[in-house]
Design goal:
This protein has 1 helix and 13 strands; from the N terminus they run H-E-E-E-E-E-E-E-E-E-E-E-E-E. The chain is mainly beta. Strands 1, 2, 3, 4, 5, 6, 7, 8, 9, 10, 11, 12 and 13 form a 13-stranded antiparallel beta sheet that branches.
């Protein structure tokens, strides 16, 4: 009979520890798969260069491929054929910079839309503002998709010598089922198209 209070105390202690551990259980946030990432996925693009009058200066081809996956800090990442390390994350579609040992957002999730990154170079400072549409928008004249998410990148460049500021706009159209369908680069401080990446073919799993 003398052992019963001690047993009760130990039981209550274990019960409180169990309840405390339940309270501390990690909540896994859902991840939006902005880009289809599997080893072997591949996209081929036609690249068009335009002059300021809208005439085509040159055409070329560009291929993007997921070549392998890897673990970084117990997290799976995918390596592209250009060396970029990417994954779908709660913050969006992100890439890993080896030099900084940090991840940077390429396509933001809805909650991260409006994020900006600043980069210091010897002769200029570059700010890149990342935004996205809340819903799907039309993709004109695309044989692959009528609608997609639109990601907009505002690139502000300030020259240190003159303090002059120029802005370049980039728009990318992406679907989770296909990937990046089109990218449009515009001339600085202009709405004139400078370069376009147009999806020609793709293979996704």
């Amino acid at each position: 009979m003398k052992r019963q209070p001690l047993f009760s105390s130990i039981s209550l202690l274990f019960l409180s520890l169990f309840l405390f551990s339940c309270d501390k259980e990690e909540v896994i946030e859902p991840v939006e798969a902005i880009m289809p990432l599997q080893v072997g996925n591949e996209w081929v693009y036609d690249v068009f260069e335009y002059n300021s009058d809208g005439d085509v200066l040159s055409t070329s081809s560009f291929r993007r491929q997921v070549v392998k996956d890897t673990l970084i800090i117990k997290t799976t990442w995918f390596i592209l054929n250009n060396g970029m390390i990417v994954r779908n994350d709660k913050d969006g579609y992100v890439h890993f910079r080896k030099d900084a040992r940090e991840q940077y957002i390429t396509y933001p999730s809805p909650s991260m839309s409006g994020i900006a990154y600043g980069y210091q170079y010897p002769n200029y400072t570059l700010w890149i503002y990342h935004r996205r549409t809340t819903g799907l928008v039309a993709v004109p004249d695309s044989p692959h998709a009528n609608q997609a998410l639109e990601f907009t990148f505002e690139r502000q460049t300030e020259q240190k010598a003159s303090s002059s500021l120029s802005t370049t706009w980039v728009k990318e159209y992406v679907t989770p089922e296909i990937g990046m369908i089109r990218t449009d680069w515009y001339y600085a401080d202009s709405d004139k198209l400078m370069r376009r990446y147009e999806l020609v073919s793709y293979r996704v799993q």
